[in-house]
Amino acid sequence: MLPLLQRHAARLQLPSRWQPAPRQSRHPRRRRVRRRSLRGASLGAAAYARRFAAGKAQRRAVKGEHDNIITYGLEGEVDLARAPALLRWYRKPDIDEARWLSLSDAERLAHVGHSRGLGFVKIARAPAWLADTLKADPGGAELTTKPTDSLEEALARVATIDKHLGTERGRSKVYWQGNVAFQGRRGRFVRENRAGLTGYLKLAADYAAFGKLALGFARYERDPRAQPGKFLEHHSLPPLDSAWMKRLDAEVEAASLGMVNGDNHHRITGTYFRTWAYGDGRYGFETRDAHKDTDVLAREMQRQTHALQRGFGAYERFAKLTVLDRDTHLPMLGDKARRLLAKVSGGLHVGAFAHHYAIPMRPLEREYPALLGLGARAQRALSERIVAARADYIKALEQIADGAHSRSSADNNLRVRVALARFVAHSGLYQAIDKHVATLARQR
C-alpha cells in the first residue's frame, strides 16, 4: 500500500453527525485551506469600494479593442424577511412614498404578502443606480443594478447595499451574482480566444466546486452541524458536467459567429458564459458561486476582467480537462456505491444527482498536475495524493452503503457529501488550483 494511502486509511470512519471531531483527529491541512481561500483575489470587495471612494475608478477595455469598454452589473437574491430594509428603497405602487416610509419594517413586510416584491417600485431617495422595479424571485426578491463601466463602482454598490441592509456574522444578506459584459462585434475576440475561453470556464467550474467542498469540509470538522456540499443537490447550482458543457460550448460557438444562442439556461456552480442576457450585441459572464461572500464576487469579476483585457491564452491548456460525465464516471464507482447514490441523492428527484458524486473518478491525477505547470516532483506528489484520496473515498462509500439500512436517507446523504468534501480536502486539488489561479491573476 502506498504510504499516502496508509496515512489516509485511518480517516475512513466518518465522524458522528452531531459530535465534534476530536481535536487530535482534525486534518492538519485545514488551516492552510482557510488561509488560501481568497488568494485568487488581488483585492477584496471593500478595497475596490475604497478605490472608488478615492476617485480611482478605471474604465477597462477588451484586448485589441480600446473602445470596447467592459461593463458590470449585479443581481442579488434577497429574503425580505431577513433584509426588510430593502423595502425602504422600494414600495408598493398603490401606496404613496410618504405613507410607505411612515410604516414600520414589519408593516411593510405585511404588504408584501405572496407577491414577494413583484411590481414594487423604487422610491425617490433610493440610489439612482438601482433598477426601477424589484422583481420576484423563488428565494424572495431579485435586486438588480444598472450597468456601470467601472469594476470599482460596481463593488462600491455592493458595499452600499450591504451597509443599508446590514450583514449577518460578517457576511452579506444578499446572494450575489456578478455580470461582466463586452460588445460581441461579430465574434472576433471570442474566435481568437475560443480555446482559452473554454479552458477558463472549465477551470472556473472546478475552482468553484472544489473550493466549496474543501472549505465546507474545514467548517464541518469544526462543527459537524455544518453540512458541506449542499450545492451538489441544488437543481440550479450543480457542478459542471458534460450536459452543461454541451450548452456552454453552444454559447461559445454562437459568440464566435457573432450570434445569439437562444438557450436561456445557465444553472451551474462556477462561471457561465452567456450570449443572450445583456442585449445590444453584448456577451458576458455570470458569476454563480459567490453567494453571500462579496470577496469571492470581487475575485471572480476581477479574473473575468483581467482575462478580457489580456486575452484568454493562459487558460488554453485547461480546455483539455475532462468534465464529469454521468455515463462514464458514475459506473466507475462500482455497483454498491451506485445503488447507494441512487437511493440517497437528489431529494425529491431521487437519484437524479447521483453522478455528481463521481467527481473523484475523473482523470484528475493525470490532468491537473501537468496542467498546473508543477515541477516533476510536485506533479508526482499531487498525483499520489489524488489517487490516495480517491481510494479513501471509494472505501468510505462502501462503508456507508454497508450500514445504510440502519440510517435515514438524509443521514446517508450527509455522509456521502462529507466523504466527497473530504476527498477534495485531502487530495490537495483546491489548494493547488487556488495557488495557480492567483498566479494567473497577476500576469501582465
Provide a brief overview of the structure:
The chain is an alpha+beta fold. It contains 16 helices and 12 strands. Among the domains are: 3-39 and 322-442, no CATH class; 80-138, no CATH class.
Overall description:
- This protein is of the alpha+beta class and 444 residues long.
- Among the domains are: 3-39 and 322-442, no CATH class; 80-138, no CATH class.
- Helix content is 45%, strand content 13%.
- It contains 16 helices and twelve strands.
- It has helices spanning 3-9, 30-35, 45-53, 97-102, 105-112, 151-165, 188-192, 194-222, 242-256, 294-310, 326-329, 335-344, 364-371, 376-403, 409-427, 429-442; strands at 61-62, 65-69, 71-78, 90-91, 120-122, 133-137, 140-144, 167-168, 171-172, 174-183, 271-274, 282-291.
- Helix 3 crosses helix 6 and helix 8 runs antiparallel to helix 9.
- The longest helix has 29 residues, at 194-222.
- The protein is globular and about 65 Å long.
